[in-house]
Design goal:
Blueprint lengths: L5 E4 L2 E4 L10 E4 L3 E6 L2 E7 L7 E2 L6 H6 L11
Parallel strand pairs: 2-6
Antiparallel strand pairs: 1-2, 3-4, 4-5
């Protein structure tokens, strides 16, 4: 997992919750989806990307960081 809360699966990247940055996760690759586990708990599930060099990011995975640091993303605000 990298510092951008993404795991690399073959040539593509998939987002995971920012709370998992720096942790080791397990990735299960299915024909149509990618499932990421932290221990025995499912952390993320994404539709599998077909083309190479793509990224599938889910904004919900970054909300924790935006609440703590609203300026982390241009134009982002926290309530």
């Amino acid at each position: 997992m990298d510092r951008y809360a993404q795991v690399r699966v073959r040539t593509n990247r998939y987002s995971v919750p920012v709370g998992l940055i720096g942790r080791t996760v397990r990735v299960i690759l299915h024909a149509s989806e990618v499932v990421v586990y932290d221990g025995g708990k499912e952390a993320a599930r994404h539709e599998r990307l077909i083309a190479k060099g793509q990224a599938r990011l889910e904004v919900d995975h970054y909300l924790e960081a935006l609440v703590r640091k609203p300026g982390a993303v241009a134009g982002a605000t926290a309530p």
